[in-house]
Amino acid sequence: MRVGPRVQRMRSDTLAAALDELEAGTRAAATAEGRRGPIDLRYRRFEPGEQVIARGELRGPGRWRPAVRAGLDVRGDGEVVAWTGGVRREQVTPASDESPYQALRRALQSTSVDP
C-alpha cells in the first residue's frame, strides 16, 4: 500500500484476506487523503482524475514472476479504480451494480492462489 511517499507492506495467507486488507487500506486512504486540486507545470496540467494519490497492490505468490498482479488506485478526485496486470495495467470496469472492490474480486475469482 502506497499513500503519498509512505509504503506499507503486508502479508496474507489467502487471496480473500489480502483483498479484505486491500479494501480496508484503500477506503481509509480515500477518506484520509481527501481530494486534490489540479497540478500546473510549465508543459502540462494534471487534473485530479489523472493523479494517483494512493495505490494498493496485490502480488503473489512468487517473488520474481507473481501469478497475480492487481490493485486499486485512489485518484485525486476521490474515484477508486480497480486494475489488473503488471507493466501493462488494464482497468477493471465494474458492472452497473458493482463497486470497484467487488469488480476486482470478480476479476480475480478465476485466479486461485490459495493453497
Descriptive account of the structure:
The chain has one domain (about 1-110). The strands form 2 sheets. It has a 6-stranded antiparallel β-sheet, covered by helices on one side. Strands 3-4 form a two-stranded antiparallel ribbon. The protein is globular, with a radius of gyration of 15 Å. β6 and β7 (about 80-85) form a beta hairpin. With about 120 residues, the protein is α+β, with helices and mostly antiparallel strands. It has 2 helices and 8 strands, in the order ββαββββββα. Helices cover about 25% and strands about 30% of the residues.
Which residues sit in consecutive blocks of at least 5 with pLDDT less than 50? Answer: none
Number of domains: 1
Helix segment tally: 2
Give the biggest beta sheet. 6 strands, antiparallel
Amount of beta strand: 25-35%
Overall spatial form = globular
| Neighbour order of strands in the largest sheet | 2-1-5-6-7-8
- Please report the total strand number as a whole number: 8
Q: Termini separation (Å)?
A: 24 Å
How do the helices and strands follow one another from N- to C-terminus? EEHEEEEEEH
Helix content bin: 10-25%
Find the structural class using helix and strand composition: alpha+beta
Query: What Rg, in angstroms, do the CA atoms define?
Result: 15 Å
> How confident overall, as mean pLDDT?
85
Layout of strands and helices, then pairs:
Layout: E1 2-3, E2 6-7, H1 15-33, E3 39-40, E4 45-46, E5 52-60, E6 68-75, E7 80-84, E8 90-92, H2 100-108
